[in-house]
Structure formats: structure tokens, C-alpha cells
Fold this sequence. Notes:
This protein is of the alpha/beta class and 626 residues long. The protein starts with 36 loop residues before the first strand and ends in a 20-residue tail after the last strand.
Amino acid sequence: MAKAIWKWIVIAFTSVQVNASSVTTSSHLLTTLPEKIVIGIDGGTESIRACCFNAFNGDIIGKPCALPYPTYHPKPGYAEQNPDDWWKNLGQAVKGALASAEVDGQAGGTEEVKSRVCAICVDTTCCSVIALDSNERPLRPSLLWMDARSAPQTVEILKKCKRDPALKVNCNGQGPLSAEWMIPKALWIKQNEPQVWENAKTICEYQDFINYKLTGKLVASACNAAARWHWDGNECTKDPRQRNPYPGRPISLYKKLNIPELADKLPRKCLSMGDVVGRLTKDAAEHLGLNEGTLVAQGGPDAFVGMVGLGCIYPQQLCLITGSSHLHCVVTAKPTTATGSWGAYRGAPLNGTNFAEGGQSSTGSIIRWAKKLFGGDSLDYSTLDQEAAQIEPGCDGLVALETFQGSRTPVTDPLARGALVGLTLSHSRGHVWRALMEAVCFGTRACVDGLEKAGHTCEEIIIAGGTTRSPLWLQMHADVTGKDIVLCENIDAPLLGCAILASVGAEVHSSIQDAVRAMVRVSKRVEPNPKVTDTYDRIYKEVYSKLSNSVKPVAHSIARLRGGANHYERKEGGKAIISPSLLAADWANMKDELARCLNAGLSRIHVDIFDGVFIDSPEALTFGPK
Length: 626
């Protein structure tokens, strides 16, 4: 599993650990600087990036600049970062972005550029938790979002609080609850580092810490709180009153866990994305190379800010993030919950909206697996796509299951496995390739259907990531789901999302909706072919939807007998390589899941994790739902 931040939204974007000259999306050569510029800042897992944008139309000015920072793993399952590294690199990234702006191919001049910067906005990883002292200084390194040490606390929370209404967002209270989320991490700190807990005036996140350093004001992001803190994102932005000093907070949950003081340790003020946090202090302005008093707009979690950057802000829009896994995030008018989906989260991504999540564990990863078997580096994807395109929908009776690494939604089954059913001697490599592509699309339809059964319908799917490189696969997604597939011009959604929010905070645009209309541009719309959709509908209903249940007993028996691929040799004294997809694993017991894999003889484990950045490498982490 990996980040519970699922669906999330997008974001197959760009490489990390680059310098000021690195480019993550195309930039526009300007003949003149726009009157107003905004800066989007994306604090990811491996780096923090900054980019200047035209505040009116969202065009990139110059180039994005990224500065990497280290992650420390003091124990297995632990992941920590130094908040001071975030702050130091933020300053360098912004200065690099300012320096990269060009006019007619010549440097525009940092002073001229910064004089036109009217606002900035920051997104960060979600659930990277910090404990601050009375001077708002870190008491310990941050517990990074992927830190799994609070797995026992998730079990405790579900056991003690299962009927608490705040847990409905976790598959209607049935769980699982991710060790990533705020409450498990806070509970871990109290139980395991009582002195830190006692000295902590504030428990907050990466997002809150950076905004405090920028403005001197400590506020929470309503989107973050709604999706990962178990808060009501609409209510939590209201002013505290004597009769309700903690609006939108799950006070009953805190009391059941014997941490009622958490209500006072978390930021008391909460703002919706796009609201004004404050203005740059003198020290912050000097650190960033900007003017004192520059406005700071509220951002949020990288993935959900990315929803804004893709224009996915209206009910019945669904974001599909594609990479090694598929992530589905639908904006909905109904804050309903159901088993088999996460959410809906009230007041997220924006005030007055809700969204719910779903996901597939292995999608692009099985396509890469098949390519490796069929020829590896000597074979390109387009050749295989061309072979598959010659075959009729349905692959002449060959159907596949894409659940190579378990099933996430609408049915959670970590022991589910992939399958090819209907193979004959007449089937070719192209048949197998197409069957796998179709299986991923059928799985996407199953997730969409599961969300719709929970009351979250969608009319179009906004897609980003690796799938956008294959016209055949794009059309297949449209044909199988029966939905229009929409591609945006700028796929670096987190940075553009921040630019949109900053432009609204600076009142360049009167609302986020107006800013999206001006700054997000659709590059392509793929419509389903009605005839092909009818064919796929029959296959989905008569074959695919029955297949997983049919092979489930066999898959579970295989898991009991083998436990894993025990044909791998375990060399004496050798170290396992963990190439973080534990998407189908039990996230609440990650240590046991890893031990089970290693005991079965595996020497390599692939894990999918999501933080809003795409690293284009088969050996790298791929960011997706928890």
C-alpha cells in the first residue's frame, strides 16, 4: 500500500532531484513579462520545486527549479525528514525559479521578475507530521507520510473507535486505517515519546510549518484536515464559539483514545485552499528573494492541489492518475460513504465540495512486466500497441485479470492475483498485450462502478500519467468505461494548482472556478466508440466481473502454499532490495507484510507510493494511493 492519499490526482509529473535549469513541463518564450506573476511551490517526498506562472493565463515563465533533500530511515518502517531542510531548499528553489525567467531568450532580471510576483502558494506531502515547541521549533524530525511506525496505533483506533462517525470515511468504518494519517502518528508520539508530546505546543504538518515560516501564522489546510485528519472540512473553517470551540473536529475520537489535548495541539485556525494565510515576513522575503509583504495563499496536499491543476473541481468529474498503479478520485455532491471506497471527504478538495477515492494496485506495472518478457529494451511500446491494434476488442476470447499485486477497490483482497483465461494456440503476443491493457480498463470500470454505487457518479475522466502516451490505451479506457477521457495541456498539476490558488488569493481571479477556466486548458478529449463500448459492456458483465470470484479460491490456495515466489535464491548474507507494490498489502501491519515476503524467499519487493511526482524509471517509486 502506500500513501493513503490516494487519488488522488495526478500527477505523473516529472523527475525529481534536479537543479535550477531542470524543466518539468514546457515553458513559453516570452517577449514581455506579464503584469502579475504567481509562484507555485510543490514540496514533494524527494525535493521541493518552484515555478513562476503568468497569473492571468497559467503560462509557465522560465523553468521549474527543484532542490532535493534527504530522507532518513533510522529503523525499518521509519521515514523521517528534517524540517529545516524543507525551509532551506524552499529558498533556493524560489530563487532559482526567479532567475530562470527569460524575455526574448535573455534573462528577465530577478528584480524585474520579483517586482511582479503578487502571490505564492505551497503544496506539500500530506501527513508529514511535526511536533513544535513553544517557539514553534521542531522537537524532533518529521514523521514522513510514508512512515509506518504507527501501524499498531491504527489497529487500536479501529478497535476502540470503530463506531465513531469520524471513521466512516475509512470504508464506512470497516477500515483499513492508514498508518500515514494524522491521528495514528499523533497517538504514536504520545505513547512512545511522552516527553516530546508533553513539550509539544503544536502538532502540525509540513504544509502548516512552511506557511508559518513564511507568514508567522499557524493555520491548517481544510483540505488536508478533511482528507487525513478526520475533520469536517466545511465546518472546521468556521470561527470557534463558546458552545463549539472545536468546529468540525472529531472530539469524541480524541477522547476515546485518551488524547483530548490533541484538539488544542493541532492548529486552531483552518483555511480553505485559496484563502489568504498572510504575507511574507521580512526574514522570509529575504530567504526567498521576494519582496516583503508578498501574499501567501493557502495550499494543501500535493495530490489534491493537483486536482485543482487538472480542473477537477466539479461534481461528476473523476481524476485518473496512471502510472504503475491507477488512482481514481471523484468529486461528488454527496458526502456518502460505503464499503469498498475511501471518503467521501467533506469540504475537500474545496470548501463546499466532497471527493471519494478508489484504486488499482497494478496497472502500468503489468504492462512494463509484459514488455520485459516480450523483448525488454529491444522492443518499444509502440510496436506492441500496433500489434494489439490489429486485434478486435475481446482478444478473440482471451481475458485477463490485472490484479497481479492484489485488489484495492471495489473489493480489497491482498491475496488476489493476475490471470489469463481463454488462451489457445492461435493467440499471439499482440493478443496477450491487448488482453492486459483491456484488463486494466475493466478494472478501472469496476472502480468507477464501485464509486457510483456509493453515490459518486462521474461524467468524464480527467487523465494524467503514463497512459496518456498510448493513444490505443486512451481510447480503450474511453470505450470500456463509456466515459469521455480528457487530457490537459499542462500535466504538472500540483505546480499549476498552486498557481491557480495563488492567483485567487491575489484577486487576479475572483474564484477558483474562474481561475481554472482561465488557466487550465484541455489538449484532447477522447470519446467512446458506441459500438465498441457495447462489445466491452458484454465482456465486462458476462466475463470479467465473474472472473475474480471464480479464481479467488485458487489464488488464495496458491498464496497459502507458496507465500510468494520462492524460486528466488536467498544468498547467504545478502540484503533484500526493497524498491518501494505494497498497495495490496495490509498497511496497518507493514512490518509483518514485509517479513512474509522476505520469508517466502523474495529478494526484491516493489512498492507503489504517491507524493505528487512521477519518476520515469522502472526501478523508482511510483506515487499512488496508500
